[in-house]
Amino acid sequence: MDLQLRAVRRRDVDRLVGLLEQLGYPTTGADVHERLDYLLDEPSIRLIGADDGGELVGVAALGVLPMLEVTGRLGRVLALVVDERYRSLGVGQALVAAAEEQARAAGCVKMEITSSRDRTRTQLFYQQLGYTDICTASARFVKPLTEA
Question: How many domains would you assign to the chain?
Answer without folding.
Answer: 1
